[in-house]
Amino acid sequence: MATEKNFNWSDDSEPHKKRTKLIIRQHPEIRELIGRNPYTMLVIILCVGIQVGLAVWLQHASWMVVLMVSYLIGAFASHALFICIHECAHNLVFKNKTLNTLAGIFANLPQAFPSSVSFQKYHLKHHSYQGVPELDADMPFGWEAKLINNTWYGKALWLLFFPIFQLLRPFRLKEIELLDAWTIVNWMLEIAFMAAVIYFFGAKAALYMVFSFFFSVGLHPLGARWIQEHYLTHGDHQETKSYYGILNFVNLNVGYHNEHHDFPSVPWNKLPLIKKFADEHYETLGYHTSYTGLLFRFLFDRELSLFSRTRRSNRGGKSKINTEQATETLTLVSKSA
After folding, report:
1. pLDDT > 60? residue 321
2. Of 88, 183, 249, 292, which is most buried by a Cβ count within 10 Å?
3. What's the rounded Cα separation, in Å, for the pair 195 and 214?
């Protein structure tokens, strides 16, 4: 397990490809789940509409009301949009990659900070090279873990400002070109959108969106998702854990994280079917049922810190695949007999 001063180290490659091959042999019916869900675009339109509508409604409200609505409603809508951006990054909404990119940029608008295109670039590396710092933006920096340490207030501040820490991580990544034409488009449209919100509806409307975004990924029960997914919370070396709780209903099944890593070409609406078909592979794994409980445990359990992650340098050896190969492999799996 991790200590205060070190990440948990593994000499093995990421743990999901082997289980994927085993499950697909035993449960070939899972091939039928691989595909896209264009109805995700309706979720994007709904959540963007909710955020814009609430921003307009709150333009003359008190700051207390703005904060409360951000925490109780806006965070959930913003988080759902983040999941939709994630689906677009995996090209799980439309067949056309450009349409997925555009859908991700549109979903990004009420989140105040342009991130969709950059996320699209580095997220697939997280799947292929989980725990390899120079390729996995989900891994904390060593200095980040030392800075936060294991105090409750340090961890609370980390969650509160999580988007800032996450913003810094892509700059350490290798083999990724962060700036290109689509990135510039993402930035220009986001700046224009937020400028229009401020011009027509004022600062409170814009800050409602900012607060919603920060709460959706930070000091909020939803922020426990970052702990749930890859932190070593069960006294073992299991790197990925799922969440089977009520919030999956509004979080587009993002809690099914082992299932997602095993089959990243399955859209969000079909992830529970993976567990249903291959439950013998998942029922023995550690999992979570409460984001609120996990949030408080992370904050006050001094055995848990940012060092409670598995780090590796092994990119996969003979089984190494890059992001394009990963997509191709899962497509072939879906067609194979």
Report:
1. no
2. 88
3. 19
